[in-house]
């Protein structure tokens, strides 16, 4: 899956201030296509189409938004990757809001498999060149509310893949790495899915002072390469070591794609781009496609707001030109 693009947050998180999804932004998709990208990841929150944990009666008017997202991507020649960012019984963010535990509770597992089988039936006529299913965003163990072992995860994923293929045997399926997407899945190398990794290593760079992580109290501005107070060092070699397990799984014939990555907007852009260039260079060397979180906003190429950025007004957007060019430099073909 050597595809390149962006995550779009049209339906990513249901909360009181956003009772309905938004329509696909055609101007943004046009920009993506014109710049040579071909991939759009669509993380979804199932609560948009479900009320009160009634998993089996999705709202048709919400599903029609997803229909339109896929069609909008197709109209620009972009592959759409549909992902459950929040699934019945699990989300890496605020998992305690779920009634069930996807990894341990039969109710959630039944609903998860049913949901993907429903999408498989709904989109059976769309070829995999245009649409893939990314089953669940960043599975992980979240004690005490949502404990999960790798064996728990494997069992759920295998069952759900079987449910999809019972309806649409040729559907392209994507599975995220364990431990928040970062850990490779050799135990699932045989399921015929694309394995989706993350590009957030090290967190001290990618999530510097991001308030929802444990790096928010870092006292010093990091540089890249990064030497920590304990003397340990992050550099290109450490990035290679981080992805070594993914290369080992890839050697078993498994396609690898980096479904999310990026750098939060408090760190200096000079530092961010040094790290970004090493990361993109490595992805190019490995022949991996990738998808930035996100297009515009704190991690994107548009209006991210990092200090010391040189902005360019381009195609109606405030673009970090240096970042855009580095981003495109990893694309093969």
Describe the protein in words:
There is one protein chain. The chain is of the alpha/beta class and 333 residues long. The chain has a single domain, classed as TIM Barrel, CATH 3.20.20. The protein has eight helices and twelve strands. The chain has helices at residues 26-34, 60-75, 106-122, 150-167, 203-206, 236-250, 269-286, 321-329; strands at residues 4-7, 39-45, 79-86, 131-134, 172-176, 194-199, 226-227, 233-234, 256-261, 289-292, 311-314, 317-320. The strands form three sheets. Strands 1-2-3-4-5-6-9-10 form an eight-stranded parallel barrel. Strands 7-8 form a two-stranded antiparallel sheet. A two-stranded antiparallel ribbon has the order 11-12. It is globular and about 50 Å long.
What's the Cα radius of gyration? 19 Å
Compute the number of helices.
8
Mean pLDDT across every amino acid position = 95
Order of helices and strands: EHEHEHEHEEHEEHEHEEEH
CATH architecture call = Alpha-Beta Barrel
Q: From the helix content, strand content and strand pairing, which structural class follows?
A: alpha/beta
Tally of distinct domains: 1
CATH superfamily: Glycosidases
Q: What is the β-strand count?
A: 12
CATH class: Alpha Beta
Shape: globular
Task: Name the poorly predicted regions.
Answer: none
- Residues in helices, as a percent range: 25-40%
Strand order of the largest sheet: 1-2-3-4-5-6-9-10
| Gap from first CA to last CA | 12 Å
């Amino acid at each position: 899956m050597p595809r390149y693009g962006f995550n779009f947050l049209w339906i990513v998180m249901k909360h009181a201030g956003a009772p309905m999804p938004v329509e696909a932004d055609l101007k943004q998709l046009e920009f993506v296509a014109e710049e040579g990208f071909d991939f759009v990841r669509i993380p979804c929150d199932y609560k948009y189409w479900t009320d009160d944990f009634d998993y089996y009666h999705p709202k048709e008017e919400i599903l029609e938004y997803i229909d339109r997202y896929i069609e909008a991507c197709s109209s620009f020649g972009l592959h759409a990757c549909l992902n459950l960012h929040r699934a019945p019984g699990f989300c890496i963010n605020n998992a305690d809001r779920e009634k069930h535990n996807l990894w341990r509770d039969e109710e959630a597992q039944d609903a998860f498999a049913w949901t993907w089988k429903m999408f498989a039936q709904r989109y059976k006529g769309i070829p995999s060149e245009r649409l893939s299913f990314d089953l669940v965003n960043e599975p992980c163990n979240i004690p005490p509310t949502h404990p999960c072992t790798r064996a728990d995860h494997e069992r759920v994923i295998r069952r759900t893949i079987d449910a999809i293929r019972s309806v649409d045997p040729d559907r392209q399926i994507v599975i995220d790495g364990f431990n928040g997407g970062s850990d490779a899945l050799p135990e699932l190398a045989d399921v015929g899915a694309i394995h989706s990794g993350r590009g957030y290593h090290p967190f001290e760079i990618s999530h510097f002072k991001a308030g929802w992580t444990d790096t928010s109290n870092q006292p010093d501005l990091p540089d890249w390469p990064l030497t920590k107070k304990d003397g340990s060092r992050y550099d290109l070699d450490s990035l290679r070591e981080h992805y070594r397990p993914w290369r080992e799984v890839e050697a078993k014939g498994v396609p690898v794609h980096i479904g999310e990555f990026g750098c939060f907007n408090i760190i200096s852009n000079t530092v961010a781009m040094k790290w970004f260039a090493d990361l993109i260079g490595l992805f190019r060397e490995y022949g991996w496609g990738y998808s930035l979180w996100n297009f515009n906003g704190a991690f994107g190429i548009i209006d991210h707001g990092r200090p010391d950025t040189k902005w360019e007004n381009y195609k109606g957007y405030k673009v970090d030109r240096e970042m855009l060019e580095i981003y495109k430099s990893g694309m093969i073909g």
